[in-house]
């Protein structure tokens, strides 16, 4: 076996998988203030103003990164019980989408559909007085949010809320309103995970989250259930599906991509980023090497693309 490993040229020739900037979706946080504000739990990651986000879109274009996934930081003053900010046609996300599209029309924009950034309780849905998250009332609100993003010029909506039936409802509303080309990337298999910790800090929902999300996100013990989720989302009109978190769930990525043969994205989430960065900063691992290795592992498992906070850095490395 070692004959084929003796030099870079032959290793490259026989490599079964490749990683290019075209595989990456850059996860970007936006905020309503000025300039860039660092996120403490994500070293090297800033929340960007709308203006900075437009620059990031241009940067993506020059690096060959095909798309950006946008996540808003909404301060306490912008949150309420019902997450009304989520459906505002002039809210932060619609404004960022318009500015980014104007700056770099060829870069795909993917928006997050869920209420957590906008609710005072930090849940992805509405919250009933008895502590339950009502499914259908939440779906109605998510449809309004998705329409606001479509009207602003987003290319893809990515419902990350894990309510039942939301893909069908969003698809129907898009068709009714003439958004027949809108793509839906369903967070089909999204697990109730501790790896989202730094993200909740980044979008300002960490302090406020009451309870956990286990009544709507999947149990990490389950794998067959992920296939049922994906089958439903595809039947309801999803164009692409996502598995989340990433590396600890590569078995799910592989099962989904081999079972369905549909575009399957994986999300290297905030806690995965933070782990790599923390160990690298301590000198315990070679960060640059581990970043590229982790991204290649997604490809090997069958992911068609990877949503990652490392996209800019990885694309720089790949282009160098
Ligand atoms: C929720 C959402 C979450 C992430 C993306 N969309 C967090 C959650 O479900 O609590 C997490 C992403 C990450 O950790 O990087 N709408």
From TrEMBL:
Cellular component aspect of the GO annotation: cytosol
UniProt keyword list: Heme biosynthesis, Lyase, Magnesium, Metal-binding, Porphyrin biosynthesis
Domain of life, source organism: Bacteria
Keyword Ubl conjugation: no
Binding site for Mg(2+): 229
Top-level EC class as recorded in UniProt: lyase
InterPro entries: ALAD (IPR001731), ALAD_AS (IPR030656), Aldolase_TIM (IPR013785)
Gene Ontology biological process terms from the UniProt entry: protoporphyrinogen IX biosynthetic process
Pathway: Porphyrin-containing compound metabolism; protoporphyrin-IX biosynthesis; coproporphyrinogen-III from 5-aminolevulinate: step 1/4
One GO molecular-function entry: zinc ion binding
PROSITE patterns in the cross-refs: D_ALA_DEHYDRATASE
NCBIfam families per the UniProt record, alphabetical: PRK09283.1
The protein's assembly and partners: Homooctamer.
Protein name: Delta-aminolevulinic acid dehydratase
Species of provenance: Hyphomonas adhaerens MHS-3
